[in-house]
Design goal:
The complex is a heterodimer. In chain A, helix 5 packs across helix 6. The relative contact order of chain A is 0.09. Chain A has 15 helices and 17 strands. Chain A is α+β, with helices and mostly antiparallel strands. Chain B is an alpha/beta fold. Classes of the chains: A alpha+beta, B alpha/beta. Chains A and B meet through strand 16 of A and helix 9 and helix 10 of B.
């Protein structure tokens, strides 16, 4: 097939600074009461002037270094002019002509192979406010909340290097993990801290034809961006093959109809009348300062994933989970560091523990589980003092209460019964009580062994080692034959 | 300054009416400079209360004729300064500078009901030094104009001739100082808005170097050009007030830390200083009486052994064109926030966009709309390169040329205004008004400190001498101006409009 999509992404990341980009207001905007983090600067009062929060520059440089960008020693703020009520000054401060960084790249993993995606530019800008439309709480019109207005954003623009929607997804994820590792963005898409617009066009490499470029905007999760891209690819492919003309437009994702819908035609786009922002001096960076930041950069996710796979022999998906869940990774590293076997630690962390954490929406550091308790669990299970099954049923408690496994077991009167004589006694009682089944077993209905195991486990409230029970039952059932 | 009691003061032992005598003429309290008013307070000749009262009375009686104030202050609302303060005086403020709790209209219908929610940095500085806010003065809408005729409310009259304009856009502040309503006032200067009205009203108008005074709280017109400065009666006053205004402000990123005491060198001799007269700024198009007054001023400087030479600066002719591309460009963006959404006037309409359109359409006056359109045009994608970007380049070239000139000279001299103030009734087309900025825009484009001070009269109206120095050499500028002021002796004449209210 010679029909391929060309995908490029524009990602906006809210920077994790305490204050907004150009004033002293708190940059907390998610679920804060409307218009509580505002001042004369961010509400665009006449005469108010912006002043740059220096932390933003450091954050931008960190991001630019992580994205292997060429950092401009001099970058300039520009004004992007357009009218909208959530834009308090009638213009957005951005970097249009001379961004802080350009020409970078980010390595992503897809389908177990690596791909380098080129970054066109990275620049600093400010967020706009939010319109709150008519509701029962706020009847009669549209209101504006300026809490978000003026929060620092970092915009990352890729080259159209992505060939599939999966690659787009992988890119967004890698970028988010990178920003989280750098500590410059929370990466919470559902809170609007990370937003992604995608550009897609489809071309026929054989015939040399291609469709118009479509921009997909206002999509609030990676999954939906991927879905929107998949949908758009099919739509454009059909159009391209049937020779239908496509127009350059902005489209959004409609979750109800699971399709993209046209928002506006590109020809209606504003003329933004960009010009250099006269109220802010140019950002001038010193090489030595940039180098100092470079030397302080933490290990980046792509490198870390490689290292995890190599160092601990993890699979791609295991290492990816640890990458996505840094608290889990910390726990893993500590556990393995104390000499616990990688395989057991993995089984617990990525199995029952992660399942419960996900259900509860918490991270492992928010639970009572410690590495030494996990060590105890692993030891008890491996020495047969208890069973996986028992620990699994007790796991919610182990996460909640700061107590040792042994303590819970004794409190609940649970102990794994590995006493051969006792198990034999129970087992023979069970067998005696079910002579017909025992006979049926002898006549070849060997599947009934499971039935007997179940009965014994029930009798002992699951406290026995099922392997031991199986062994004894087999002996009993088959031994009877010998006797008889 | 002569420190001697007038007859009346002498007879009363300690007068509260009059303090100083200059050239044998008794001065009314309101005729005193900032410095002599303060000295009078220190020497217990009058109290801050007397000062406020005297200025208030004069304003109350005369502002009906002059209309310098957007709203005549109410005496009960003016606080009385602390006598021990650095600056225990009332002052007026151009109505595009924020004074918390007071209306700030910018001379526009759109902001007729806007109350400032914070103090401009300059207001904070004056407050901290004990000065008290007296009232807001008229201006051309959003400081765009040179007459106050573009104020949405009324035109201020020139105290020297009520049928003429006071100049602009700080016309209200200049008229208020000239008429003796306040000892000094604040204005803003984007292309000559402090200096032109100072010239027309016979006072001193000072535009500090760009970056010396915080613009925080000044409603922006051309952000890279705007600068706040004082309007006052003497060069020493300009330096005295300037000292309080200047200094880095963390709220204005374009301010610089440039510690300078404007008073320190002000009385230094000016002999040997090199002055340049740009030929193009004294060309034939300028009123002959003004040119005459100018060459007389040059004589005074030469008598003080200043070297005055004429120089050629052909690129100067582009300054006005560059100015009228850059300033409307910046203005079109700066005025975008006046959309009826958050504050000011709102014309309700069916949709948001219609509401914004109608609010701006009705709220802005013709001149402001003209400049917004000009600015929108020069910034539009298709024309940015041909206009705005090119203008930025020419601005840099002019700056380089000016830098070269200042290698050989200390100061540039020219007349401030090209003509005496126009009659109010005369219908002046916008382009002629634009051209009146010809000699003043250079300082804004390059960020030079500049000052206009009285140098004589043309057709019975005052005209100003315009001085410009290299960036951040404000103290040199004031030193030269003071040198001229001393020799010209203008303030020892009785050249005060409305010396006696009854007289006119």
């Amino acid at each position: 097939m010679s029909i391929k999509p060309q995908i490029g992404l524009e990602i906006h990341a809210q920077l994790l600074t305490n204050t907004k980009a150009f004033c002293g207001c708190s940059s907390e905007s998610f679920e804060t009461p409307p218009n509580t983090h505002i001042c004369e600067v961010c509400t665009g009062q006449p005469g108010a002037l912006p002043t740059l929060n220096g932390v933003i520059v450091a954050f931008a440089v960190k991001a630019a270094l992580a994205l292997n960008c060429q950092i401009n020693e001099r970058s300039v703020f520009d004004r992007k002019n357009y009218f909208y009520p959530d834009l308090s000054k009638g213009f957005q401060i951005t970097q249009y002509f001379h961004p802080i960084a350009e020409n970078g790249s980010l390595l992503i993993h897809t389908d177990g192979r690596k791909k380098r995606v080129r970054i066109r530019r990275v620049h600093i800008e400010e967020d706009a406010g939010k319109l709150i439309h008519h509701s029962t709480a706020l009847p009669g019109g549209t209101y504006v909340d300026y809490n978000r207005c003026g929060i620092a954003l970092l915009e990352v623009v890729t080259e159209p290097d992505l060939d599939t929607s999966q690659e787009a997804h992988a890119f967004m994820e890698t970028l988010r993990n990178t920003f989280r590792t750098l500590g410059i963005c929370s990466g919470d898409m559902e809170k609007g801290a990370l937003r992604c617009d995608a550009n897609i066009s489809v071309r026929d490499t054989e015939r040399g034809t291609s469709t118009a470029r479509i921009e997909i905007k206002n999509v609030n999760s990676f999954k939906f961006v991927q879905k929107a891209l998949e949908y758009e690819f099919e739509r454009l492919k059909t159009a391209l093959m049937s020779g239908e003309k496509t127009v350059s437009e902005t489209r959004g994702w409609d979750q109800v109809s699971r399709s993209t819908v046209s928002l506006r035609n590109k020809e209606d786009d504003n003329d933004y009348r960009y010009f250099p922002e006269p109220d802010l001096p140019d950002i001038v960076l010193e090489r030595t300062w940039i180098e100092r930041i470079r030397s302080e950069l933490p290990e980046l996710p792509v490198d870390k994933q490689d290292r995890l796979m190599e160092q601990y022999g993890l699979t791609f998906s295991e290492s990816k989970t640890y990458l996505d869940e840094p608290e889990l990774e910390t726990f893993f590293v500590e556990a393995v560091g104390q000499g616990l076997p990688v395989k057991s630690v993995n089984n617990w962390l990525l199995g029952e523990i992660q399942k419960i954490l996900k259900e509860r929406g918490v991270t492992i550091d928010q639970t009572a589980l410690t590495v030494s308790r996990l060590a105890e669990i692993i030891e008890w299970v491996s020495t047969g003092k208890t069973t996986n099954h028992i620990v699994k049923t007790l796991m919610p408690d182990l996460l909640d209460k700061g107590v040792a496994l042994s303590q819970i077991l004794s409190e609940r009167g649970i102990s794994q019964i590995n006493d051969r004589a006792y198990v034999t006694e129970i087992s023979s009682r069970v067998v005696r009580r079910n002579p017909e089944q025992a006979e049926a077993y002898l006549f070849g209905k060997t599947g009934l062994l499971k039935y007997f195991i179940g009965l014994v486990m029930k009798e002992t409230k699951g406290q026995c080692d099922p392997y031991l029970v199986q062994e004894i039952l087999k002996e009993l059932l088959e031994g009877k034959n010998d006797d008889g | 300054m002569v420190k001697r009691l007038c007859d009346l003061c002498y007879n009363l032992q300690r007068s509260r009416v009059c303090y100083s005598l200059r050239g044998g003429i008794r001065l009314e309290l309101w005729q005193n400079t900032v410095e002599s008013l303060i000295r009078g307070v220190r020497d217990n000749h009058w109290t801050p209360f007397d000062i406020v009262k005297a200025f208030y009375e004069r304003t109350r009686i005369l502002d009906q004729k002059i209309r310098a104030f957007i709203r005549v202050p109410n005496f009960s609302q003016v606080s009385i300064p602390d006598p021990d303060a650095v600056l225990p005086l009332p002052y007026a403020v151009k109505d595009n500078i924020m004074v918390k709790g007071y209306q700030t209209t910018c001379g526009s219908r759109l902001l007729w009901n806007y109350k400032a929610v914070y103090d401009a940095t300059v207001i904070k500085r004056l407050k901290a030094n004990g000065a008290v806010f007296f009232g807001k003065t008229n201006l051309d809408e959003f400081a765009m104009g040179s007459s106050t005729k573009y104020s949405a409310f009324f035109t201020t009259k020139n105290p020297w001739d009520l049928s003429r304009i006071p100049g602009g856009s700080s016309g209200g502040s200049a008229a208020a100082v000239a008429a003796g309503f306040v000892p000094f006032a604040l204005g803003s200067d984007t292309g000559g808005s402090n200096r032109l009205p100072a010239s027309h009203c016979g006072i001193v108008g000072y535009k500090p170097s760009y970056g010396l005074v915080s613009r925080y709280g000044l409603v922006a017109f051309g952000s890279s050009l705007d600068q706040i400065g004082p309007l006052c009666r003497s060069v020493r006053d300009a330096a005295y007030i300037g000292n309080i205004l200047i200094g880095r402000d963390k709220k204005d990123a374009t301010t610089v830390d440039y510690p300078t005491d404007l008073m320190a060198r002000i009385e230094n001799p000016i002999a040997g200083l090199r002055c340049a007269v740009i030929k193009q700024s004294v060309s034939e198009e300028i009123d002959p009486h003004i040119r005459f007054a100018f060459w007389e001023a040059v004589k005074v400087l030469r008598n003080n052994r200043c070297i005055v030479e004429e120089i050629d600066f052909p690129e100067e002719r582009y300054a006005i064109a560059v100015y009228y591309i850059l300033s409307p460009g910046e203005a079109s963006s700066n005025l975008a926030r006046f959309d009826g959404v958050r504050y000011g006037m709102r014309i309700p309409d069916a949709s948001l966009m219609e509401m914004m359109t109608e609010t701006r359409n009705y709220g802005f006056g013709e001149e402001v709309k003209r400049r917004i359109l000009l600015g929108t045009f020069v910034l539009s994608d298709a024309r940015y390169g041909a206009y705005y970007q090119k203008a930025l380049k020419v601005r840099r070239l002019i700056a380089v040329k000016v830098q070269k000139i200042f290698r050989d000279y200390d100061v540039l001299l020219s007349p401030t205004a090209l003509y005496p103030p126009f009659p109010i009734e005369e219908n002046t087309d916008p382009l002629s008004f634009y051209l009146t900025d010809k000699n003043t825009v250079l300082a804004n484009l390059v960020g030079l400190p500049a000052l206009s001070m009285p140098m004589g009269f043309a057709k019975g109206m005052p005209c100003g001498l315009h001085l410009q120095c290299r960036p951040f050499s404000d103290s040199l500028l004031l030193n030269i101006a003071r040198g001229y002021e001393k020799s010209a002796g203008l303030y020892e004449d009785e050249h005060y409009p409305f010396a006696q209210p009854e007289a006119r």
